[in-house]
Amino acid sequence: MIQSSTGAPENMKEAKALRCDWIVLPMLGLLTIALTLASTEAIARGMFFQTKTTAESCMVLNDPSTGTRGIPGCVCWEKMGENQPVEYRFNSSGYRAEAEFGPKPPGRYRIVIVGSSFAMGMRVPMEEVLSTRLPAELSDQTGRRVEIFNEGMAGKGGSPRSVALRFNDALAAKPDMILWILTPWDIHYVSRIMPEDDMPAGNRVFWGRTRRLVKESLARKSIPEALHGLSEAVASRLIADRTRLMLQHFLYENQSLCVKSYLRGGDEEAGFLRAEPSTEWQGRLGQFGNYAAELERRARAAGIPLVAVFLPERAQAAMISMGEWPPDYDPYKLDDELHFIITSHGGTYIDILPEFRGIPNPEQGYFPVDGHLNAGGHAVISRLLARELTGGAIPALKISAQQPAALEQRR
Amino acid sequence: MDTASFQFVLFGLAAALVSNFSRSCLRRSIVLLAASVVFLGLLAHNPLVFLPLAGFLILGYIGLFLIERGVSRSFAWSVVFVLFAYIWLKKYTFLPAGLFLHSPYFTLGLSYIFFRVLHLLIEAGDANEKRHIGLGAYLLYTLNFTTFVSGPIQRYDEFAQDQFASEPIALGPRAIGSQLERIVRGFFKVNVLAMLLHAVQQDALVQISQPLPPSLKLYAAFKLAVVYPFFLYANFSGYIDIVIALARLMRVRLPENFDRPFSASSFIDFWNRWHITLSTWLKTYVYNPLLVALMRRISSLALQPFLGVFCFFVTFFLIGVWHGRTSEFIIFGIMQGGGVATNKLWQLELIRALGRKSYTALAKNPVYISFGRGLTFSWFAFTLFWFWANWKQIDKIFAAIGVAQWLGVWLAIWLSATVILASWEWLRAQLLSIKTAEGPLLTSRYARVVYASALGLVALVMTTLLNQPAPDIVYKAF
């Protein structure tokens, strides 16, 4: 009796504390989640801020006669999370260049670069871009004065169809060589010339994507899989874009995570790495062959050699460097296909992919999430291209046996 | 389903929910058996692949049946048959390849079933143990889905005490909350921590043979050695956290398998904290009987301390060898046995040189403990090369840098492990010293809700972002 009379208030306190816990603990959990999400987003916004203007601010996106192209004389700034602020300055011809494209001075070896965002140097300051570095390297190695007109255009302006639409610009510069820089993106969007015009508005995108994710989850085979899909749908809706960018940026700095995640991207994203490409990719390659044939014919008619080079995607470069990949994949497959297409139409193909075997962590030459080459990546590609171009692929740029010693003396 | 996946957790929670619909031991047992059968069905769709496993279980049960009925020599024969059947089904490479079954069959969980069956046979053979285990109880114990894939290795009497209790153990809101928090922690360890550590290790493995500057190669070697023990711990202990919590929600208490192993100050202490149920099993059924048998035969007092050293070596050599079927695991076993035996010899030598009192004082010295902890970690990390790599990879790893450089790396690992683990122990003690009336603040239910919510969120976000399954539970392969 004595025990029960003294224990009763204690038990009541305990019961009350337990009742409070039913409210306090879930609230505490929710508060933790909310604070974690908010603070991470705040940090991400600080670290990966983005400007309102982008390279597209200086582009005409909806001209079907030229595809996406630059606005002549336009200057704009861009910072897209991972990169440093970059200035895009377009010359009067509508291409990203510090100087105007003028007539070729005597003795000058002129190269016109065509291609997409890798060629244009998206997200990278002009002085670090391949088209700025390569002339210096080639001039140093060959002793000739080499200049480059960069006619690369980001977005759909770099697709083979767009390149074909603006090819007269390249021919009009009367170059000694046209260098076509290709990426998997160019094959994927081989005949697109403008951004998709059916993009829904922001709010519709949010609810549309959510509905799609939920639909996909419910269509899965088992209840656990469906629930897992739903939880992922909730998580993907919970994460703000900047938080997602920050986390992916740090995660994808790791080579094996970057490769594994990329390969799980499905046929649309990673199908070009398949040892047996899908019918969609084979169709795209077929279309690419048509554009390549057309460009090769026009270049030949103008008496200008067309040289193509394929630059790997980030994960592809990492796979080649690691020297191992899952059995159904082959990082060289697309390179081989392009090589065959270009040479079968009489063009010259420079194969730099095998060089990535000897480059440790080549994925560091790319922005981890954005996937474009960074300044380091442009330097690597420039070095590899210079080596190949002067190694005999282009007779006019070949270094003769005596040249290195003479150049050394001159320096 | 054979990993600590979201699907596995949901399956376990559903089974726990159904199990709690009734307090009757029979109904709970039916639910556990049904869940275990469904679990097996989800692991392999062709019933034929289960035939060898079924044969193994029947063999074990016949042995148990005969021993319980006192048939002469049935104990010895049963143990021999079960041992041979295990070695044969696991395809140990020292057996001729022609002996093996060549059609594919299911061996997942076989090692852990083997330990449970052998435990039943040995206990049944013990003259003091008189009990009858029915086929239903036998199947429940051996096929229990919470311990099927990678343990922990539970004793039958502990299992029966909870599973067959007329009044099942209590499961209140606090216990449920604690188990859910443990599931979240385990899920985070396997699906985030282990995945990231595995990725770092994979990168280091690639980097060590790339044309990098020497300093970067040394760093890659350092990472390669250091990261794997943490990965293995996160991978295995995370899975164990999940299954212990799921079993508890089904009102069965599974034994703990880890006790902060990297806090161990010696290699002997380490094996008291790492895969505890395995080392306890082998200590019970190998170390103790072997030591008793040797002490009966060798009466020399001078030699007796060394008998313990020898028994340690044999026991931990077997632990190492159990992990795999190839010659790499023989080296791993020698290193485990050698490590524990050397540790014991060191203790004996110090006691002889300093006297027991001084040795006890030394063993309590924080600096001595810290260096011992660092040495234990670095030795374990070093031995793990023979655990995860094959001979080709081992050759590549050790050829990547010179012998002197490897010694330098190992020394760096020892010293940094000494400092970092000591700092961690100090920090942990400081944090736990912040107390409220109910105990340390950090272990209060409020703090646990906070970090479980944060870990759960991080786990969900990371698995969504990475869009790839976590590495398999390493110990399911053994």
Q: Major sheet of chain A, described briefly?
A: 5 strands, parallel
CATH-assigned fold name of the domain at 108-195 and 276-410 in chain A: Rossmann fold
Q: What's the architecture of the domain at 108-195 and 276-410 in chain A, going by CATH? A: 3-Layer(aba) Sandwich
Question: Which segments of chain A are poorly predicted (pLDDT under 50) over 5 or more consecutive residues?
Answer: 1-6
The most extensive interface, with participating residues per chain, is: A-B, 42 and 37 residues
> What is the residue-mean pLDDT of chain A, rounded to a whole number?
87
- Looking at CATH, the homologous superfamily of the domain at 108-195 and 276-410 in chain A is SGNH hydrolase
Order of helices and strands of chain B: HHHHHHHHHHHHHHHHHHHEEH
Nearest-angstrom radius of gyration of chain B?
A: 24 Å
CATH class descriptor of the domain at 108-195 and 276-410 in chain A:
Alpha Beta
Overview of this protein structure:
- The complex is a heterodimer of chains A (411) and B (478).
- Chain A is α/β, with parallel strands linked by helices.
- Chain A has a domain at 108-195 and 276-410: Rossmann fold, CATH 3.40.50.1110.
- Chain A has helices spanning 2-47, 117-120, 130-142, 160-165, 167-172, 184-188, 202-218, 223-238, 241-251, 255-263, 266-270, 279-302, 314-322, 333-344, 375-393, 403-410; strands at residues 59-60, 69-70, 75-78, 86-89, 108-115, 145-150, 177-182, 306-310, 348-350.
- A 5-stranded parallel sheet of chain A has the order 6-5-7-8-9, sandwiched between helices.
- In chain A, a hairpin with an 8-residue loop joins strand 1 and strand 2 (69-70).
- In chain A, helix 7 packs antiparallel against helix 8.
- The radius of gyration of chain A is 27 Å and the shape is elongated.
- Chain A starts with a helix and ends with a helix.
- With 478 residues, chain B is mainly α.
- Chain B has 3 domains: 21-163, no CATH class; 173-254 and 436-477, no CATH class; 261-432, no CATH class.
- Chain B has 20 helices and 2 strands.
- Chain B has helices at residues 6-19, 25-43, 51-68, 74-89, 110-125, 135-143, 145-148, 156-163, 173-207, 214-249, 267-271, 276-297, 304-322, 327-354, 356-363, 366-383, 385-388, 391-400, 403-432, 445-466, and strands at residues 435-436, 439-440.
- The chains are: A alpha/beta (411), B mainly alpha (478).
